[in-house]
# Entry
Amino acid sequence: MNYLLVALGGGLGSLCRYGIGNLLARYSFTFPWSTLLANLLASAILGFLTGFSLRGDLSAPYRVLFMAGFCGGFSTFSTFSAETMYLIQDGKMGMALLNVLLSVGLCLGAVYFGYWVGRLLG
# Structure
């Protein structure tokens, strides 16, 4: 049953990430904003659910569906890595470094913020 929940959540998360990519593709960004946004949101959601579930209010099937499935499908470390590599290959070292610093720093901040809010509301 857990495999089905992960597949369902992962599919929904992937569709949301794809939607963000298509929405932001309308603009000619040279910086990978859609990947950063998806990873930020996934980090905040995962942090929130982690904090919220500390009191046991989130059952195991929901944790599997949303935390492993949705957040796993919504976030994308591989795309972040590839886009950083493309920036380096294009000689855009400053943008590559900015991508790494923003992604790691903001995503850590988002997961902590989500965790804090989840604990307050949980």
The CA atoms of residues 104 and 111 lie 11 Å apart. The helical segments are 2-24, 33-52, 60-74, 77-89, 93-121.
